[in-house]
Amino acid sequence: MCEILVRVGCGWAKNDRNDYFDFRLATATTTRRKERGKKALLSPDGVGRLRDAEPRENPPTGASGWRAAARRANPPDIEKALWAQQEAVRITPEGSEDLPKRLSNLGGSFVDRFERSGELSDIAEAISALQRAVQLTPEHTPYLPALLTNLGGTYLRRFGRTSELSDITEAITVQRKAVKLTYRKDASMLNNLGISLDSRYGMTGDLSDVTEAVSALRLAVKLTPPAHADLPSRLTNLGSALQLRFEQTVDSSDIEEAISVQRRAVQLTPYNHATLPGWINNLGNSLQARFKQARNLSDIDEAIAIQSQAVNIMPHGHSTLPNLLGNLGQSFLLRFSTRGEREDLNQCISRHKDAATYRVGSPRSKLNSATIWAQLLVKHYPQSPDILPAFDTALSLVALIAGLEQTVRGRYEQLKGASGIAVEAAAAALSLERPDKALEWLEQGRCLVWIQLSNLRTPLDDLRLQNQELADRIAEVSKQLETAGSSRATGHLGMSMLEKISVEDEARSHLSLAKLWDDLLQEARAIPGFETFLRPVPCSTLLQHLPEEGPIVVINVDKHRCDAIALLNGMDEPLHIPLPNFSLKKANDYRSRLKAQLRSQGLRDRAYDHDREVVDSHPTLLARPLRPVIRGNPGENIVRGVLRGLWVEVAKPILDHLSIPMKDESSDVPLRLWWCLTGPLSFLPIHAAGVYLDSNREGVLDYVISSYTPTVTALADQVKNPRSINTHVSGVFFTSQPNAPGASSIPGTAKEVQSIYSSATRNGVRSLMVEGSALTNAAEPLQSRFLFQNGSLHLATIIQRKLKNADLAFLSACQTSTGEEKLSDEAVHLAAGMLAAGYRRVVATMWSISDSAAQEVAINFYEYLWSKRGEVRSAAFDGSLAAYALHDAIQRLMGRLDNSERSLLTWVPFVHFGY
């Protein structure tokens, strides 16, 4: 028997295809011999009779009949098979030799339903059943290889949805064992191993994987008799592996062989066979690949013809149909790029639209189509009314590929492949003069993981007034989901089967929680007045909760255009500010130049001390004034050039458009401005943009007090929900450890903390002093941590505490506001993480800072806060003036520095996040 498997990758022509996995029925040869002539389909009535039978009479599984029905892709038959096999497992005694076989068949039926529904819960149930089957089977049992290969194929299917490398690695591990146990003489085992190897190649690009896959699949075909029913599936798998290898090596013999064996597979398959649409699709993909190299129009014409046939004969409602539609759309696009006929372009757009909006299917596959649909409309029909629904569809699918059923790490891995969609959508909306829609899309499609965390912690007071029980259930599930997302165990090499089963049990529980969460949200949204509960916030709502102290400026950086969207308290619509002199290319260039300069200066570690080149050595930084600094090298103008570009092309046009004047030194309350940045601009210090000449300077600091916010929603929520700090528990917690294990030595930090601690004590502020450093984990942000002499404190732990009185975090460790380049719109850094943990404001740094500068800024920062406490003093602490305090501390530092590169590198990295 064989089954359709669709593996979804990053691009249509390269990776979307149908593989055919030989799912070995657990009614293996030994069982068939023993029960030949006694088989009967397991029907509902039959199960009842079997229940009353003697315990020694083992019930037949009926797998062949029911799974044959499933092969015909009839949903009722799949449900009957699943029900029957669940009953068969239930009534089979523990210890029975038939139990592993029936568990395997149960897993197979869950796989069948997954193929139709695309529900990850089905594949999780399949893995669980098959793991148990393997665990119960002794090492030398004849059908163990079949169980192993079935388990591997099920991991492979889940990999096709989640792209989790651990899944495909586990698939290959168990399938290698199956091949070894059959002495490389079983065509089915070799076929399945080959599929998994070239699937991993599609993710990693390791040529050795696809080369080994071709070798295994060739041998599988060689070992398969000419009249064998599985020969077509093995031929098409071999062809697909050859096609993948051709796309890297451009060896024409590979693509010729691929097309040849796939034609043979199609010819050997009956017209009404359930797998025929997928085999035709794969042949079309190989013809696509050959067309790209040879540009022979007959290839792309044939690809379109046969892929259209595949779409037409695929059963309605099948979860792989979006893949087939997407591949057909790409063939039309290839022909349009050669012939230029508009009808081909229109057909391409239509097919991708159909794929993106299909009711079932892989979210990743549908997202690919939605993105192409939107991009083609923007390029060829820039005024089309379909642009808005196209991007709406794409952004809703982005949320699905990074759903709560995955770990935080898994969500970030998925988002790497969807980076930039929100920015692209916003640019299209701005071209259509819809800044409101642009803002909504940026809020919906960026910082998704932090938004999910915020949703899990949303206040439920209003809902409790309507439905106390529902609010309590939502609160409980949210806690469990938060824990599962950050602490779920993951598989690793060397685990026992019991350990693997435990990991899968956690994964299934996580999946069930995510489904329950969705159900609870639907229940809440059915209550009048709660229709938008935890849905993306519309622009009109955001505008109701803006800070009075100054505007929020969102800057969108896209390859087509760059714009700012300004939000001002009291205005009923966002203000659109085009930035025609700025571009994505310039942003990337500025980021690359700044990054190279930081590396050349050794500013990736706070332990690097260039103080002697910046300031004169001094026994204490509390004394004033300090003598002039030593000048930097006059030829170093990288930082000055970047800051000048940001000033002329971005910051100054925005300030002018908003009519913000240069600050009057006599003004008591300077205007604040919050920057919300996208793409490569989020790695650049827009708060320090300016012209810094030898004799004078002008920049953002002369106009406003800058802060940053990852999203507008994050800041609007703080404005909407002002929080008073409990004065009985309010105080300052200091942390600074100069020699934490695993971190570079920062000797000045002890003096820094001691000085501030003493100052706090003198001012009567309740204080606690501990010392430590910090490390950001870009792969798993919730595992970012603060290092101490006797251990570490993870961000996940801080978040789980749900600190009600968290107000200000001052993180003067290195690069605490620097994100992950592949996730530039996800704010993957400690500063954003502390905001997500409940802190209202965070002081952080964009790169490593000198020890002496860190001391001076921190001491002056806190001295400013002490000085503004007013006449009535208490032991409580208030960080609401943190942005003003940092601004003042930076100006003090700048006052004794020149405008050299090294001086700029000293004060520019300090930033303020939050309210």
From TrEMBL:
Signal peptide: none annotated. Residues 775-914 form the CHAT domain. Residues 48-57 have a biased composition (Basic and acidic residues). Pfam families: CHAT. InterPro entries: CHAT_dom (IPR024983), TPR-like_helical_dom_sf (IPR011990). SUPFAM superfamilies: TPR-like. Residues 33-71 are annotated as: Disordered. It comes from the Eukaryota. This is CHAT domain-containing protein. It comes from Ephemerocybe angulata. The lineage of its organism: Eukaryota, Fungi, Dikarya, Basidiomycota, Agaricomycotina.
